[in-house]
Amino acid sequence: MSGRAICLPLQRMSSLMSLEHPVIAIDGYSSCGKSTVAKSLAKVLGIRYIDSGAMYRAVTWYFLENKIYFPLAGEHSDLDYRPTLDQIHIHFEVKAATGESEIFLNGHNLKKEIRTMEVSDNVSHVSAIKEVRKRMVSLQQQMNTGAGLVMDGRDIGTTVFPNADLKIFMTADPEIRAMRRYREMLSAGVEVSLDDVRNNINSRDYEDTHREESPLRMAPDAVVLDNSHLNFDEQVEFVLERIRNLRPA
Q: Helices marked H in 26-116 — which ranges?
């Protein structure tokens, strides 16, 4: 599912909003298209977009690249990861030519590196580490400068921004998610089997919802967006309609 321009002028959208600088949290399962929808919303609203999942993928890439041990599901580690995390510096840059927000780790653009199957297979393990989770949550919270923000991930509405103005929880049928992810990877030139993608999604779902630190769960005040049978425009319009109804606290 690829993103494209939304046929709604920024001026019109702004005039329909009651909140000038909303914080919008989008959580949900892997391969639901959270980032694609979040990017488009941020563009329409004229506010910043942060892909929190890319941050965890960047840390995972660093761990793999530097052969840093991390526990797998069901394993336990007493290692202190804080010295390693002190060596990791993450920031985002918006490319003028495309308007896309790209992630950098220690000055290195990781746009392609973090989307490999190896990173996908291990990101849930690394993101379950308590020190990693706390460090990333702190960094994500610092990114809210008061000018409005759209952030997507697993714990944005429950842990990072529990007082977000709008919380969306995205989901879809697992088989549909697997096929979407499979086609996305093939189009990016990544050779992978549908079974591998399916197994990866099932594994990540389990680990994300069962980890001790900030597990994936729906916030009580979140709005469910099941996009199993919705096209891209319908998904964005679903969220925009709820943004139009936002009222100051």
A: 34-45, 52-65, 82-85
* Phi, psi of 243, deg, nearest 5: -70, -40
58 CA to centre of own chain: 12
- Helix 194-210, helix 117-127: angle, nearest 10: 10
Query: pTM for this one?
Result: 0.86
Q: Return the residue matching tokens 């653009």.
A: 109
User: Is-contact 225 235, C-beta < 8 A?
Assistant: yes
Is the pLDDT reported for residue 80 higher than 90? yes
Q: Which residues pair with 93 in a beta bridge?
A: 102
What's the mean pLDDT in 156-163? Answer: 97
Amino acid (1-letter code) at residue 191: E
Instruction: Enumerate the domain spans of the chain.
Output: 10-244
Give the pair of three-digit tokens for residue 74. Answer: 């069901």
Strand positions, DSSP E, 188-241: 223-226
Question: What residues form DSSP beta bridges with 184?
Answer: none
User: Cβ(235)–Cβ(242) under 8 Å?
Assistant: no
What CATH superfamily classification does 10-244 receive? P-loop containing nucleotide triphosphate hydrolases (3.40.50.300)
Longest dimension (CA), the chain: 53
Condensed to tens digits (0 to 9), the pLDDT of residues 18-34 reads: 577 899 999 999 999 99
Cα separation, 219 vs 166, in Å, equals: 11
% of the chain residues with pLDDT over 70: 90
